[in-house]
């Protein structure tokens, strides 16, 4: 199973939607809250190529992007193979 990391804040509706999709797919994920954590957000942004919004999602270290990117990947049929076998 792939290692999924998702950077979030508690009240972000896009974070909630992304976690819902991952849960529906049966994917375990590590949630990393950057709420009130400027250093954590800077680290997230550095990993995500400068993106500062949440969520930022990584599968086996590969940057997937945000919620819209995750849903687009799923719509293209690319999410399930990544979750099953890793990147």
TrEMBL record:
The keyword Cytoplasm applies. The keyword Transport applies. Gene3D superfamilies: Glutaredoxin. Keywords: Cytoplasm, Disulfide bond, Electron transport, Redox-active center, Transport. GO terms for molecular function: glutathione disulfide oxidoreductase activity. It comes from the Bacteria. GO terms for biological process: cell redox homeostasis; cellular response to oxidative stress. GO terms for cellular component: cytoplasm. Transmembrane segments: none annotated. Residues 4-64 form the Glutaredoxin domain. Has a glutathione-disulfide oxidoreductase activity in the presence of NADPH and glutathione reductase. Reduces low molecular weight disulfides and proteins. Belongs to the glutaredoxin family. This is Glutaredoxin. It comes from Methylocystis echinoides.
């Amino acid at each position: 199973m792939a290692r999924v990391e998702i950077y979030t804040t508690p009240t972000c509706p896009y974070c909630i939607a992304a976690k819902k999709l991952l849960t529906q797919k049966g994917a375990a994920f590590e949630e990393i809250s950057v709420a009130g954590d400027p250093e954590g957000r800077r680290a997230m942004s550095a990993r995500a190529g400068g993106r500062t919004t949440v969520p930022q999602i990584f599968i086996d270290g590969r940057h997937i992007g945000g919620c819209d990117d995750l849903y687009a990947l799923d719509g293209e049929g690319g999410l399930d193979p990544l979750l099953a076998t890793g990147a």
